[in-house]
Amino acid sequence: MAVKDIVSTCAYCGAGCQIKFTVDQDRNKILEAVPAPGRTNDGTLCLKGHYGWDYINDPQILTRRLKRPMIRKNGKGSPLEPVSWDEAVGYVSGRLMDIKAKWGPDSIMCTGSARGPGNEANYVMQKFARAAVGTNNVDHCARI
Amino acid sequence: MSNGVHEIEDAALLFVFGYNGADSHPIVARRIVRAKQKGATIICCDPRRIETARIADMHLQLRNGSNLALVNSLAQVIIEEGLTDDKFIEEHSSGFEEFKELVRVNYTPERVSAVTQIAPEDIRRAARLYATSGRSMILYGMGVCQFAQAVNVVKGLANLAIMTGNFGRWGVGIGPVRGQNNVQGACDMGALPNSYPGYQNVTVPEIQAKFEKAWGVKLPNKAGIALTQVPHYVLHEPEEKKIRCYYVFGEDPAQSDPDLPEVREALSKIDLVILQDIYMNKTGQYADVLLPSTGWNEHDGVFSCCDRGFQRIRKLVDPPADADVLTDWDIISRISTAMGYPMKYNNTEEIWNEVISLCPGFIGATYEKLEKYGNIQWPCRSADMSDKGTSFLHKDGKFANADGRARFSSIEWQKPTELENDEFPIILSTVREVGHYSVRTMSGNCRLLRNLEDEPGWVQMNPELCSDLGVRHGELVKVLSKRGHCIARCLPTERVKKQAVYMTYQWWIGACNELTIASLDPISNTPEYKYCACRVEKIDDQAWAEQYVLDEYVKIRESMGIDVRGNKRGEAA
User: Fold this and answer.
1) What percent of chain A has pLDDT over 90?
2) Please, are residues B506 and B445 in contact by the beta-carbon 8 Å criterion?
3) Residue B161's CATH number
């Protein structure tokens, strides 16, 4: 069994606590999370730090994990149908280009995310809005 | 935050304003406790008797929505009693004379006492303690920011710190303890309508030219709109200004935004709604396209914590074997490329190197240093290994304004937007609880955390209000505002005054955002989540109400793709 300890940053509030995860790499499972000595958390964690990683196991409690791209092929109100990434990317980019051509780039609103994705994903999203779409309509859930 | 979290315990006085650390940041709250143990004076300013109030030397239990009246009055006392740091004001600030004039007559403790519900002598005592501790730090949270008058209250708090010289040293300053794990990071990265990464303004031509050169494309120079303005732009602007596409990434406006009936109307009228997320959510029900991504622990990257600290997140596990998901940056890059603006990155370090090369304040925060030191607080202006970042800002009284001086802001207190009235006589304020996070797609899908609290959530009510309405602990009640209603469980508690009730926003059935008002601060566009008018009604048929909650819960979970009939897993899609 390849068990490894990996330190990462908690995703549950702005405190930035450091967590030491024990991971069973063969079984692709997190086994345990314990506090690591970070600057802000100083070797402590709250409940969410200790137990907030279970969502990754998709325990089917509240909502289902999204596992493949889906499109409402027959318009609003029709069922979501699984598609390939090529089809999803082609569909989204085509519709975005149509909307941009017809209504201009400022008719498109993009969001970043203040949660799990991380800084790099936010950077890429705002670059996409500004450079590919051509709008500064990019914002995120800072206000909630 | 102008200072680091690790400095909190070294303050001689903590002025905790509209910030409930015990529920929103338990580990930051430990620093408040430790400061107390080390002898600090604690002043808690909050309409509820929160945990911090219980260990505080003073609890200013101000009336909801009176923030700036109190803050200006504290300043009035500090000036009136000659407790200002005149040297700091003289050398490092501007606008003090005008501010003095604003507060001199209209903000005496006697004048604001009725509005704030705080006795004049308490205001005086708090002001003296703050001004004379020698090392006072202000911590604030959503109780300051989620009002239609919010940014101006922040400026008011900054006034207090400037006039007493509580900036630019260890253990002082003002600290907005930012709520979501990477809200600081999303701002740092320029996921804001008016700034590129590193807080570089989109309307400044030299900055625009720099990014045009780096990205090889002509860029727009007009600031964009805020997320909270989307419903308005969809429903009330003329055809040529309407929002037609909403690309939602890692959030759930149909649960988290104010006035949900209006949000739903807007979402159903937008031509194209794209949701990129890890779990199905309320917004997904309005989405035309779902783009599934990797979750926290399935990808690498950097987060920024509340005190400007960059720290690594690391991939621990692969996504489930039956999932065909991609990292967020890969999805966006593919769409961009298909639209004729190619983006191609092999890993997050490549992206990060591009980020820091464009941001003078981040340029020294390399992955190499993050590996070595664990944490780098920006600004970090040199790649040299000896530059480990900056714990506190404004050293030697240097501020980010063009003249290097801090500016006093002279602003009058204003009332909240929707006041109590005959039909809706009680204030509703939204708050946090410790077990759940945000819209709970993560915390609610963790077996242990979901057991802490579940639907429909609680409404915190003063016991006297409960007895007036004839409702008891645990009873289901209906909460209504002009915009909508929901059902929640009555939680009688002496922590709250009779004039206001409090709810958390993550519940589907007890969804308090059905009631909240989309009145926005004109500068930050943050909604007034902390104040709208509501009423609470008793439900006579409790058996019906309990059954309603159960049925609704099943219905919503089913609509989120959960197989509710047994333990077997839902449809793999």
Assistant:
1) 92
2) no
3) 3.40.228.10
